[in-house]
Design goal:
Catalyzes the phosphorylation of D-fructose 6-phosphate to fructose 1,6-bisphosphate by ATP, the first committing step of glycolysis. The chain has 2 domains: 182 residues, Rossmann fold (3-Layer(aba) Sandwich), CATH 3.40.50; 136 residues, Rossmann fold (3-Layer(aba) Sandwich), CATH 3.40.50. The chain is built from 12 helices and 11 strands. A 7-stranded mixed sheet has the order 3-2-1-4-5-10-11, with helices on both faces. A 4-stranded parallel sheet has the order 7-8-6-9, with helices on both faces. The chain is elongated.
Length: 342
């Protein structure tokens, strides 16, 4: 078989390790031929393909980003979009199937194309860790490590000036990065999308920490909503899937905290630094294992499914299961961390 591989949506550490795992096992064990698809679904609709051999993937497990490029293109948009045109492009280049590596938006597009007859296998990717069908997704561990290191640095400068530091991390619908990094860094308040808080509650925690002689650290997910807010804060328009581009809630909270508490407060949006750099050892191993098992799934023609981590095992689950419900932070997990607040 001739297989096309694409990476779509936001990049993250570990994408190259997946590509390497698929290509190495696919070529050496199953004698597959692979082609790279440039820039996600854009490369599918524009037929932008190139040969992907062992030579192209050597040494990739430690390299961040993606050698294939990525985009947030919707494969059903534009004059060349739609399942019929995609099928024509694949047939013209002799491509039998696609491995789509991506998160919620990518897998939703893959599910729709699969229902329209395109042979697709999925590999989950999201630093937010928001896909319920897999216990962890690669990129999450690295993002948490980067965020924790950044918060450790914010705490030292906050201690020096007795400032309140507000650190904003990624997390559109779920607060896993904020929860893990906030606990690891010893945050005095963690604000996540699953648990709306009032500005009064946040300020009470900040004041409590300050009264004990601490420089308060507040960690907030980009998708966090204050009580009374109908939508997450966004002033950056919409992406290709008509979702608001989030970011900036910390810059709303910081001046309000300072105004209400009298404590000098600074905000820092970590943003895309969480997506960059080399993957952690955990993410290198997880991504490689997912790639190896994806090659096995190709042999079994497990179309319309994705490989996933369950416990320590790699399993296969239908796209519909992966997309049915988000992997939100359970209230019990948040309450564990809340015992340390203030």
């Amino acid at each position: 078989m001739k297989i096309g591989i694409l990476t779509s949506g936001g990049d993250c550490p570990g994408l190259n390790a997946v590509i390497r795992g698929i290509v190495l096992k696919g070529t050496t064990t199953y004698d597959f031929e692979f082609v790279g698809i440039r820039d996600g679904w854009r490369g599918v609709v524009d037929a932008d393909f190139f040969p992907l051999t062992r030579h192209e993937v050597k040494g990739l497990s430690k390299v961040g980003g993606t050698i294939l490029g990525t985009s947030r293109t919707n494969p059903y948009d534009g004059p060349h979009g739609g399942a019929e045109n995609v099928a024509k492009n694949l047939a013209k280049h002799g491509i039998d199937a696609i491995v789509a590596i991506g998160g919620e938006g990518t897998l939703a597009a893959a599910n729709r194309l699969s229902a329209d007859g395109i042979r697709i296998l999925g590999v989950p990717k999201t630093i937010d860790n928001d896909l319920r069908a897999t216990d962890y997704s690669f990129g999450f561990d690295t993002a948490v490590n980067i965020a924790t290191d950044s918060m450790d640095r914010l705490r030292t400068t906050g201690d020096s000036h007795q400032r309140c530091m507000v650190a904003e991390v990624m997390g559109r619908h779920v607060g896993w990065i904020a929860l893990h990094a906030g606990m690891a860094a010893g945050a005095h308040a963690i604000c996540i999308p699953e648990v709306p808080m009032s500005i009064e509650e946040i300020c009470d925690l900040v004041t409590s920490a300050s009264d004990r002689g601490r420089a308060p650290l507040v960690v907030v997910s980009e998708g966090f909503k204050l009580k009374g807010m109908d939508q997450a804060y966004s002033d950056k328009g919409l992406d290709a899937f008509n979702r608001p581009r989030l970011g900036g809630i910390s810059e709303v909270l910081a001046p309000e905290i300072e105004r209400r508490t009298g404590i000098e407060t600074r905000s820092t949006v970590l943003g895309h630094i969480q997506r960059g750099g080399s993957p952690s050892a955990f993410d290198r191993v997880l991504a490689t294992r997912l790639g190896l098992h994806a090659a096995d799934a190709l042999v079994d023609e497990s179309w319309g499914q994705m490989v996933a981590l369950r416990g320590t095992d790699i399993v296969r689950v239908p796209f519909a299961e992966a997309l049915g419900e988000l992997n939100t932070v359970p209230l019990q997990r948040y309450e564990e961390a809340a015992a340390l607040f203030g």
